[in-house]
Each structure stands twice: as structure tokens, then as C-alpha cells.
Design brief:
The structure holds 2 protein chains of 2 kinds. By secondary structure, chain A is an all-alpha fold. Chain A has one domain: Orthogonal Bundle (Non-ribosomal Peptide Synthetase Peptidyl Carrier Protein, Chain A). Chain A contains 4 helices and no strands. In chain A, helix 1 packs antiparallel against helix 2. Chain A is globular. Chain B has one domain: ANL, N-terminal domain (Rossmann fold, 3-Layer(aba) Sandwich). In chain B, strands 1, 4, 5, 6, 7, 8, 9, 10, 11, 12, 13 and 14 form a 12-stranded mixed sheet that branches. Chain B has a two-stranded antiparallel ribbon with strand order 2-3. Classes of the chains: A mainly alpha, B alpha/beta. At the A-B interface, helix 2 and helix 3 of A face helix 4 and helix 6 of B.
Chain lengths: 78, 360
């Protein structure tokens, strides 16, 4: 699995969405991505990519697209 | 145009001295009052009843303040209902009315952002292993977004590998505690919980079970009020001492905040004083006429916050008795006012999210 596939799979697994929905996903745009869902998403991404995000990045991670840029800061090219 | 919080992004959360802060608040609170006046009909009527002219610039102490219990009696919101993404309810004990705070996306985000800036100034930017001295129940009951649950979820942002000290039935989970301590031996750990719940369900129960740990470096943040503990004659010194006797080397920071102004919390410093950050301020009012009280004298505590944009909660009169100890000169080095709370004003109702769990 390449990074994009892994990134997508994490969203799909945590939120139970389809791959077509991914590009529009933003924080609170679906009921699953609330603040609890957010912590689950972060924990899953951290486990999948073996990284540890700073609090600021975790706060800044407010959409599927923005998340890709943030992963980049941790040397995960998506 | 309303005040933009981003303008403070480069300023340390405790980095504004009195003169600058007063100028900022004069402008920002005037804009907030004006903006809520235009968008919230009930607020507009209240402001008019005060005889306040929102089109002029006023000093912070001249802004119309709402009694905090008004949020129990009225649904006050300054955005269309369809933009509300979260309704916070304060956890009143049974029989008491519950206050409702309506949050839109921007307001929610600002609350998290400001809480992060404030807490990070104490713990640094890295997340730390976190032990919640409470139960994980909030995860099972996602719809019920009480202040207590929201506090736990909000604080989880600072944590890694979050563990819970209590099981679903509020019993001490000794295995979980032991596993957490073993796993993170030697590293800085974070602890979080509600004051009276920590006392009753973690500290007292650990003592009964003869359980104690020797953390090398822990940071405990706790919130929720002292009312219930004061009834048992437990003060901050006794609380901190018991935490250290059962957990080892732990720096304890109580903090004060209310559901009506989440985010811009007041954290106790190393000297035991509650501090206003750049996002909030306090005024003490004389009980007889609500005029501004002198430093060192008690009165009603009024809380100012720059955060509320989707509900008119930027200037609230609480039912807590407070005393300002000084401004910009706390030995801890933080700028801004620092103060002390003496508890509820007599006759005020009991509230506080740590006081709402009743043993059945």
C-alpha cells in the first residue's frame, strides 16, 4: 500500500465513508468527524504512519486535504 | 468588522501588560457587543434596557454584562440555528435548569485553539502520555455532550496513549493505572480530571486500596470547582498534598472556567494564583452596587472573554466570589491579572461540572 492508499484507508475505516466522499471531507462535515472522531482519526493515522503529531498540527488538521499537507511536515509524502 | 483572534497568534498567552491589554479589550469588547447587538434579538433588548449605546466605544467595565444564569432561562444565539454545530449544556445537578450555549464552527474552533495555546504554554508543544482520572463513558454516550464529557475530549488533544483510571461504573481500574504507570515510567506524564471526582473516586479509593505510585514527573490539570470538597473541609493544599503522596512528583494546576466561556480558561500558576491569559480578563464587583471593587477586596466575579462570537457571552457576571490579587506582578512572571476564588456567593445555586455526579 502506498501512502495515499494508507491515508485513505484510515479515513474510510475510522469514519465508515467511501473513497468518493474523501476529497470533500472537513471537520464536522459529517457526524462521525466530531471532536471524538477527530481523536480517533489522529490516533489511527499516527499508528499507521508511526508518527507523533504536535498539538498544533492536530488542531490544524481540519480537512482531508489539509491533513495531507500536515503529514508532509512529518516526512510522509502523500 | 469584528475582532479577529488571529491578531493574537504571535503573542504569548501571558504576554500582554495592563496598558496594552486595556486598549485591546476596549476595542475588542466594544466590537463584540456591537456584533451581538446586531445579531441576537434578545441581547439587543437587554442592551437597550441597560441604556447602553453599542455604537460608542466603551471601557471593559462599562460593557453590559449578562448574569450567567440567563443562559438557563433564555436561548441566546447570534447565528442562525442552522449554523450551530454544537450545543453545550452545563451539567446542572438534578432539578436545576441547564444552561445552553450555541456554538458555530468558528466559535468551536477558536475555543480549541485558545485552550491549546494556554495549556501548551505550561506543557510545551509535544503531546504527552495522558491519564484521565475519570471514566471513558463520554465515548459511549456521544450525543450527550455535557461540559464534563467535552472537557475530557477537549483535554485528550494534549494526550497520547490516553488511559482512564475509572471503569464504566466509576470504580478504580487498578490494572489500568498500573499498566499506564509501568508503560510510561521515566517520561513526563499528564493527568487530567475533575476536582471532586478525582478526590472521591481516585485519591480516596487508592488510599483505601493501599495503592500508590512514584511518578518522576507528572503534570495534573484539574477543573470543576471546590464546592463539594469545601463541605468536607478539603482545600487546595490538602488536595495537592494527597496527589503527591499517592502519585509522587506531580505539579498540580487547578484551572477555572465555565461552560459559558469554554476555551479561555484561568490556570493556576506555580504560586497557586489563577491567571487571566490575553484571551480573558476579570473584574470584581462590589455586591452592594456592582461598582468596580478594589484589588484585594472581595466581590462578584465578572468574566470577560474574547472568544464568544456565536452567543453573547463575552461579559458574564458569575455567582462566584473573587478577589484580584494583583496585575502583571505575580512572582511566576506571567503578565495579566491574577486572582483567587472564595467560592459561591451565599444563596447562589450549586453548579460546577465536578459537583454533578451523585452516587446512587
Amino acid at each position: 500500500m502506498n501512502n495515499l492508499e494508507k491515508y485513505n484507508a484510515t479515513f474510510i475505516e475510522v469514519f465508515g465513508v467511501t473513497v468518493e466522499q474523501l476529497s470533500d471531507l472537513t471537520f464536522q462535515s459529517i457526524s462521525q468527524w466530531d471532536s471524538i472522531g477527530h481523536m480517533q482519526l489522529i490516533a489511527s493515522l499516527e499508528a499507521a504512519f508511526e508518527i507523533m503529531m504536535d498539538t498544533d498540527d492536530l488542531m490544524d488538521f481540519n480537512s482531508y486535504d489539509r491533513g495531507k499537507e500536515i503529514m508532509n511536515k512529518y516526512d510522509i509524502k502523500i | 468588522m469584528c475582532f479577529d483572534l488571529n491578531s493574537l497568534a504571535g503573542t504569548h498567552p501571558y504576554g500582554l501588560a495592563g496598558k496594552e491589554k486595556r486598549a485591546l479589550y476596549r476595542q475588542a469588547l466594544t466590537e463584540l457587543t456591537r456584533s451581538h447587538y446586531q445579531r441576537c434579538r434578545a441581547y439587543q433588548l437587554i442592551v437597550e434596557a441597560y441604556g447602553h449605546d453599542p455604537n460608542q466605544v466603551w471601557d471593559p467595565q462599562e460593557q453590559p454584562m449578562l448574569p450567567v444564569r440567563l443562559f438557563k432561562e433564555l436561548e441566546l444565539l447570534s447565528v442562525p440555528q442552522k449554523e450551530v454545530v454544537k450545543t453545550m449544556t452545563s451539567s446542572g445537578t438534578s432539578g436545576q435548569a441547564v444552561s445552553k450555549i450555541f456554538l458555530d464552527k468558528e466559535n468551536t474552533r477558536n475555543q480549541s485553539l485558545v485552550l491549546t495555546r494556554i495549556i501548551n504554554s505550561f506543557i510545551g508543544p509535544k503531546r504527552l502520555p495522558l491519564l484521565i482520572l475519570d471514566t471513558e463513558m463520554v465515548k459511549y454516550d456521544r450525543k450527550m455532550y455535557s461540559a464534563r464529557g467535552a472537557g475530557i475530549v477537549g483535554f485528550s488533544t494534549f494526550g497520547l496513549d490516553t488511559a482512564y483510571a475509572l471503569d464504566q461504573n466509576m470504580n478504580l481500574d487498578q490494572n489500568c493505572l498500573q499498566a499506564f504507570v509501568d508503560k510510561h515510567a521515566g517520561s513526563i506524564v499528564l493527568l487530567f480530571g475533575y476536582t471532586s471526582i478525582i478526590w472521591e473516586y481516585t485519591l480516596n479509593e487508592m488510599e483505601k486500596a493501599g495503592l500508590s505510585f512514584q511518578l518522576e514527573d507528572g503534570l495534573l490539570f484539574h477543573i470543576g470547582g471546590w464546592k463539594k470538597l469545601q463541605d468536607h473541609a478539603v482545600n487546595a493544599a490538602a488536595f495537592n498534598e494527597k496527589v503527591r503522596s499517592l502519585f509522587g512528583r506531580v505539579r498540580v494546576h487547578n484551572y477555572y472556567g465555565m461552560a459559558e466561556q469554554l476555551g479561555s480558561v484561568f490556570v493556576e500558576c506555580e504560586r497557586g494564583n489563577l491567571h487571566c491569559s490575553i484571551y480573558s480578563d476579570v473584574i470584581v464587583r462590589r455586591p452592594e452596587d456592582f461598582s468596580v471593587q478594589d484589588f484585594g477586596q472581595r466581590g462578584f466575579l465578572e468574566l470577560l472573554s474574547l472568544l464568544p462570537t456565536s452567543y453573547p457571552g463575552h461579559a458574564l457576571l458569575t455567582e462566584d466570589e473573587g478577589e484580584i490579587l494583583g496585575e502583571d506582578d505575580c512572582p511566576c512572571g506571567r503578565l495579566g491579572k491574577y486572582f483567587k476564588i472564595h467560592g459561591r456567593i451565599k444563596g447562589a445555586e450549586i453548579r460546577g461540572c465536578s459537583d454533578t455526579y451523585e452516587q446512587r
